């Protein structure tokens, strides 16, 4: 039964990570036309760095004898939110307040199509982890029914 708790923990860590990924993608899309941030430069696209989460099984809280039965991986976590170093887009718009003497405006390095593809990917990963969690829940429920 303890491995079910591990499955729930792993799936929930992935759900949390993918939700944050969707939040960052939404922030990128919302700032696609932001030419001036607090530091005076255009908005810079943000991405996440995922890292394996150290396995701390839920079973250790319930039984020290079951420690040997868990998988070493503990899911996923976001280790950093980093800015994309790719160059800003340059657009000719002489009427824009942020245009230089040649009429060129530096726009954020956000590509809406790329962000939408990433959003679809994050949504599918989220759905897959919901499915995995539901499967684990169903197996745990069936296991409990055996004992009746």
Outline:
The chain is α+β, with helices and mostly antiparallel strands and 148 residues long. It has helices at residues 2-30, 59-62, 112-146; strands at 46-54, 73-83, 89-92, 104-107. The chain has one domain (2-146).
Point out poorly predicted stretches. Answer: none
The tally of structural domains comes to: 1
Count of extended strands = 4
Structural class based on helices, strands and sheet pairing: alpha+beta
What is the percentage of strand-forming residues? 15-25%
Mean of residue pLDDT values: 86
Describe the main β-sheet briefly.
2 strands, antiparallel
Order of helices and strands: HEHEEEH
Distance linking N and C termini: 16 Å
Number of helices: 3
| Helix residue percentage | 40-55%
- How is the largest sheet built, in terms of strand order? 1-2
Description:
- By secondary structure, the protein is α+β, with helices and mostly antiparallel strands.
- It has one domain (2-146).
- The protein has three helices and four strands, in the order αβαβββα.
- It has helices at residues 2-30, 59-62, 112-146, and strands spanning 46-54, 73-83, 89-92, 104-107.
- The strands form two sheets. The protein has a two-stranded antiparallel ribbon. It has a two-stranded antiparallel ribbon with strand order 3-4.
- α1 (2-30) runs antiparallel to α3 (112-146).
- The protein is elongated and about 80 Å long.
């Amino acid at each position: 039964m303890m491995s079910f708790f591990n499955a729930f923990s792993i799936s929930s860590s992935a759900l949390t990570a993918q939700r944050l990924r969707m939040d960052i993608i939404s922030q990128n899309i919302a700032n696609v036309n932001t030419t001036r941030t607090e530091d005076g430069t255009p908005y810079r696209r943000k991405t996440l760095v995922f890292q394996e989460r150290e396995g701390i099984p839920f079973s250790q809280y319930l039984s020290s004898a079951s420690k040997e039965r868990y998988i070493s991986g503990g899911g996923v976590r976001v280790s950093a939110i980093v800015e994309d170093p790719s160059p800003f887009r340059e657009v000719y718009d002489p009427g824009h307040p942020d245009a230089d003497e040649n009429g060129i405006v530096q726009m954020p390095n956000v590509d809406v199509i790329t962000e939408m593809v990433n959003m679809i990917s994050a949504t599918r990963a989220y759905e897959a982890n919901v499915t995995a969690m539901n499967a684990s829940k169903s197996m745990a429920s069936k296991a409990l029914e055996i004992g009746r």
